[in-house]
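Render this sequence as a predicted structure.
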Amino acid sequence: MSLDLAFVRSQFPAFSESSLEGMRFFENAGGSYACAPVIDRLTRFYRERKVQPYASYDASRLGGEEMDEAQTRLAAWMGVETEEVTFGPSTTQNTYVLSQAVREWLNEGDAIIVTNQDHEANSGAWRRLADAGITVKEWQIDPETGHLNPDDLSDMLDESVRLVCFPHCSNVVAEINPVAEITALAHAAGAFVCVDGVSYAPHGIPDVGGMGPDIYMFSSYKTYGPHQGIMVVRKSIGDILPNQAHYFNGGSLYKRFSPAGPDHAQVAACAGIVDYFEALAAHHGIDTAKTGSQSATTHALHDLLRDHEITLSKPLIEYLSSKNTIQMLGPRTAENRAPTFALKTQDNPADLAKELFKHGIMADASDFYAVRPLGAMNVPLDPGVLRLSFVHYTAPEDIDALISALDQVL
């Protein structure tokens, strides 16, 4: 089965927007286009439901039901319980709140493991636990390849380690880490696991239940939705961590790690993400009646999207690998990396981004808050890297245009 790209792009208003005509979008790692069901739900909520939810009158009742719908349907796609899904203003904020709960739970002398492959969201907040007497161990990447070796983690795990934090994939290295394997190692040693899925979730809603981590976090604005942080906290760890919300919400798993009131409209609009994925699955003949389970449906659609991304990645990797003036971070094979390509360049990457824009390529240059992995790989933070990233709605002709533009500006 191949991805029907015409159907995919018909679900995204950006592709019929006159102000974007002729432009090729290659900064998807910073945030994706929103799909039509999300935009429609958000618009409807602001027009018809923008009141305090969960009261008995219709506008309020329906607003609350739409919020609950988003939570229930996202949980089903990720293979977890509804109450295990928490919404917050961002993944960075969700991580910070969770780290405060862990700070109260751990004792002096306990240890956590973090990596230097992470975007700062899943690193900085955890490292601050050292101020409370918690031992913070760093699982380090290979400075040449950016690879995280599970064997190195095995050597670090002992009875003092209570939590292991790592990314599903880095936003600059892009190698896809084996979440299930790493989780099994940590669990065998008696540690919980927290996975940052921000850079991976756009490439297919992850089967969190099947992979097994205790915490999994990602950002809905990178998965075709509004600007929210979505956090799965499994009962295994959620029930033992101290409440961080109003004391009377301590008995609710999805409320206890959300001290601020959620953005009602954006939470409700997140159901549009599932609307889109369900429509995409149905269009390609993927449904639970045929696959046998929601988990199988999730995996089948994920594989369809990834196959398309892998096909597009191969000619770009071949081109980038042929250039002596650039260094592509991460793996040189499409199968084990997300389609996010951070490039160390001889020319100033910010200047290259500006030149690419003249050729209709929307991309950016920065350190992308990946200060630790770039530093570990001897990439100067100023000026950083040129980053080119795409998702499943990217077309082969977009890749052709990108390669042509790169050939002219490098």
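Summary. The longest strand covers residues 161-167. Residues 42-274 form a domain with the Aspartate Aminotransferase; domain 2 fold (CATH 3.40.640.10).
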